Amino acid sequence: MSKILYVVIPCYNEQEVLRETAKRLRDKFSALIDAGKISVQSRIVFVNDGSKDSTWQIIRDLHAADKIFSGINLSRNRGHQNALLAGLMTVKDCADMVISMDADLQDDINALDEMIDKFNDGFDIVYGVRSKRETDTFFKRFTAESFYKLIKFLGGDIINNHADYRLMSKRALEGLSEFGEVNLFLRGLVPMIGYPSAVVYYERAERFAGESKYPLRKMLFFALQGITSLTVEPIRMITTLGLAMSSISLLVILWTLYEYFFGEVVRGWTSMLASLWFIGGLILLSVGIVGEYVGKIYLETKRRPRFIVSDFLND
């Protein structure tokens, strides 16, 4: 018997691309159903993340015209990761497997076939991984690769060149539901589930239409979110640096005492000024990193809902 597949697609102001995305996915679902790979009960689910344009109206129109399209409307904008989680948690009891992807058609929908094959081979999680980054600018390619290396250096478990294009079984989704973090970084949380996983490689295309929802400012914030959500290594590095600076300060004290008794006290103005600026900057940086973690603790203790579903169209 064919398995039920749900594809979850977070959407924020995607009116320019949504109909084309729906058309291509509808064609792909028809081919998968005809091949007996998925059940006719499978659905394409668009999650409206508080869009300010006509995204939700388009989703409603798609659902009215064809019941293979479902829609989830969040009460307000909660960000990509929360919108994605909202979709996954809302449909996890409806499907045997769920694939998450973006609405901009950069994720290759033809990779769905191989993902489903991997699922049928017994893998609970299948990661869609970019085979190359030739379409990226040098700056984006450099920063992305540096980010993955930094996460791994700090002890985070993350799949290189993997965003949020992945398949998860119902069992894996149940495991994900056990994680109660408010500060979400799904790329780091999913590998923690620990069930059998596989990788499918694909070539990422250019965005079909519309503008990227991740400009540089948001990308930097997302990177910070990922690092501080996955590991406390930055705080440990501060501790190590503090110990190193304390050791250096002892040497400086010995040097100043030597200069006081055997040298000229006037000397050392430049080194003192440089030291003050360096240590001052180091203190501010350390306080900022610790403050980032304290802020996350504050948000976690509030236990605010990560999302609120306003409407769910799934006839």
Structure summary:
With 315 residues, this protein is of the alpha/beta class.
3D structure, described in words:
This protein has helices spanning 18-34, 55-65, 80-91, 111-120, 138-153, 170-177, 186-193, 216-230, 233-262, 269-302, and strands at residues 5-11, 43-48, 69-74, 97-100, 125-130, 162-169, 197-202, 309-313. The protein has 315 residues and is α/β, with parallel strands linked by helices. The protein folds into 2 domains: 5-211 and 304-313, Spore Coat Polysaccharide Biosynthesis Protein SpsA, Chain A (Alpha-Beta Complex), CATH 3.90.550.10; 233-302. The chain starts with a strand and ends with a strand.
Write the layout of secondary structure elements.
Layout: E1 5-11, H1 18-34, E2 43-48, H2 55-65, E3 69-74, H3 80-91, E4 97-100, H4 111-120, E5 125-130, H5 138-153, E6 162-169, H6 170-177, H7 186-193, E7 197-202, H8 216-230, H9 233-262, H10 269-302, E8 309-313
Parallel strand pairs: 1-2, 1-4, 2-3, 5-7
Antiparallel strand pairs: 3-8, 4-6, 5-6
The tally of strands reads 8
Indicate the CATH class of the largest domain: Alpha Beta
CATH topology of the largest domain: Spore Coat Polysaccharide Biosynthesis Protein SpsA, Chain A
Unreliable stretches (pLDDT < 50, length at least 5) are none
Rg result: 25 Å
Whole-Å distance between the termini?
22 Å
Strand content: 15-25%
Q: How many separate helices? A: 10
**What pattern of helices and strands is seen along the backbone?**
EHEHEHEHEHEHHEHHHE
Order of strands across the main sheet: 7-5-6-4-1-2-3-8
Largest sheet: 8 strands, mixed
Structural class, judged by helices and strands? alpha/beta
CATH architecture of the largest domain: Alpha-Beta Complex
Give helix % range: 40-55%
The general outline is elongated
* CATH homology superfamily of the largest domain: Spore Coat Polysaccharide Biosynthesis Protein SpsA, Chain A
